[in-house]
Design a protein that fits this description.
heterodimer, A: 285 residues, alpha/beta, Rossmann fold, 2 domains, 6-stranded mixed β-sheet, 4-stranded antiparallel β-sheet, 13 strands, 33% helix, B: 306 residues, mainly alpha, elongated
Amino acid sequence: MTSLVSAQGVSKQFGSVRAVDDISFEIEAGKILGLIGPNGAGKTTLLKALLGLTDCDGRLSVMGLDPFKQRKRLMQNICFIADVAVLPRWIKVAQLLDYVEAIHPNFSRQRAEELLRQTKIMAGSKVKELSKGMVTQLHLSIIMAIDAKLLILDEPTLGLDIIFRKEFYANLLNDYFDEERTILVTTHQVEEIENLLTDVMFISDGKILLDSPMESLGDTYVEVSASGEAADRARGLGPIAESQMFGKSVMLFEGIGREHLDALGELRTPSIADLFVAKVKGARK
Amino acid sequence: MIAHHLMLLKREIWEHRAIWVTPIAIASIVILGTVTALMFAGEYAQELDVALFGAQNVAGETERRMVLTALFYGSSGLFILALAVLIVFYSLDSLYAERKDKSILFWRSLPVTDAETVISKLLMALLAIPTATLVVIIATHLINLIVTSIWVSMKGADAGLLIWGSAPLFDNWLSLVIMVYAAALWMSPFVGWFLFVSAYTKRSPFLMAFLPLVLIPMLEGIFSHTNEFARVVWGRLVVIPLFDDLVDVGEIFGDGDWETEQKMVSALAHIDFGKFLSSPSLWAGIVICGLLCFAAIYVRRFRDES
């Protein structure tokens, strides 16, 4: 396994605000990493630094390149859909394909046209004539036709309906992803991508709260539903979060072995959403 | 690599259709005007016959050349005016529109550097847009000449002599081409300024570009009672050091010797390359344009767009 992305002590300051605060992490090839954080957590700034759209302090390397200084070379191997990135409204679909074909060495027009045939998008249409969902489909068709090592998706399904969102992720998994490729995705709809991810990273106030493979989450984090005296005993073990549900106390534990909790109640691996809320609230205390 | 860069220019033409729509619209008006004028000229048949006879038998070649050259430049004027307006609005829009419609992140997600983008816009303004207008002007001249020849022949006059034999086509066109590109180069610091404002401003690029050009001379006048800024900046619009010492207007209409007359009907003969290329003003302007483009690249590269 090689590191596709390597960050060491990366920071980015806006005035007195540290949007990204001394972050270090590695992303290995062939992963689907979910980057999850509340609004203003520094997610977008971090992605921008990875994409060479903003400069930053510390050492950041993406595929061995300095993203800010070598952006053009980087863009030949990275694709991204930014949450605010929109396709130019005046352009025609066919023109867009012409443009990307001439500009991007790794773009397969044939592949893009195949993908577009599965949609209602016409080559002669202008982007401004398409619905929001269709524009995303168009953008995605272009992105998926680019043979890139790293795909960065920042809230790619924002404002789209549930049917389209499901299709989007299904396409991504079936048509795009393979062991050669790496996907970094951020979204607010965590539940929808939970089963897709191989790795997850939480970020809040510019710092990383969690960076773990999905399969080992269950080793570190356990959720216990307990009631009565068992609940009190569980509480004594120091849960990082507690909530009430159907008369039971649901407690989240970090770093406490299942063998200690087994007797106290029903155990399960927490959902990403619950874990996220617990970690962010914990960090803010 | 060439295809890559040509596509950057092509993309500009897709977005800014006015680049070719405007000159073609003007061409249609000019050609329609010619045709209409010739159609309604029938009412003055007698006067026209006299004029044609005079042009053919009394006037010399020089007079015919002068009249046709005047017509050439007269009909080019509207195009040139529109070209200036096109370049101003194109440059002001070129790096602003992509931020306004938020497509900048899409453009920047592709392997194109900010320098390539800004330079492609500069080349559009100084080279591609003038070229489009020049092509349309020359085509319009040709169409007008053909239409007029047919009309002249129908009147029984000798179109070969009156039109094709007398029109200094090569001279007029070449001088026009030189003047347009030279003027573009001469005005390049303005284009650089517009590109910079376009990349920098958060709103109304037109206002942001012209306000300083108006306010600075006013402030200068109030506080230091000089007008250096206006002299240097606005003065640039008035004189291009491309021509030899301008001929006195009175001389054109008076009697001159044959050589002077020849020179007067040939704009090409007035063009002085040495003077143009050795003008420090030209090179200072080009350097300023370069610096402003560099600033535009810097702004596009470093500013956070979210």
